[in-house]
From TrEMBL:
<dbReference type="InterPro" id="IPR021005">
    <property type="entry name" value="Znf_CGNR"/>
</dbReference>
<feature type="domain" description="Zinc finger CGNR">
    <location>
        <begin position="129"/>
        <end position="171"/>
    </location>
</feature>
<protein>
    <submittedName>
        <fullName>CGNR zinc finger domain-containing protein</fullName>
    </submittedName>
</protein>
<dbReference type="Pfam" id="PF11706">
    <property type="entry name" value="zf-CGNR"/>
</dbReference>
<dbReference type="InterPro" id="IPR023286">
    <property type="entry name" value="ABATE_dom_sf"/>
</dbReference>
<dbReference type="InterPro" id="IPR010852">
    <property type="entry name" value="ABATE"/>
</dbReference>
Amino acid sequence: MHFNPYGGPGAQVAAAVATLAGHGGATAADVLATGLAHGMALTEIDDEETARILAWGRRLHDVFAAPEDARVDLVNELLAAAACRPYIARHDGKPPHLHYASEGAGVVERVRAYTAGGLAHLVCEESGRLGICAREGCGVAFVDTSRNGRRRFCSTRCGTRVNVADHRARQLTP
């Protein structure tokens, strides 16, 4: 599945931030590393910004966990809270691309705008491709990029653990 250039990465960052917020204990270094791993141009994040981003991540997590028919309203709330206003930017030798926060915005505002914008694109295109891992106790948020769009687990590892446990349970049943 191919996402538009803004929606895909923004939705992936939303999943990563939602997961960080859902698991608790994330540090500024974790949040910074997550943004950098997904191509965001971040230099540093302080503890107060980390707390605000993780609070935002809990709201993002709600979108991934919500039934598909409730996602539009939740994402609209995120867009309003992020005060997104799209414009086309050209910088760092990159071709023209969409931004939803001004180049001078702080890191929290940029993360909010990027993730809300990414989720908005994805919800409009393929709302059913957001999910929370079905393995009990995992809670990882993910964007389903599989061909058939029926992914239930965040990783092969989680899927295998559930399948092995189910197989063992069947073997014990006479």
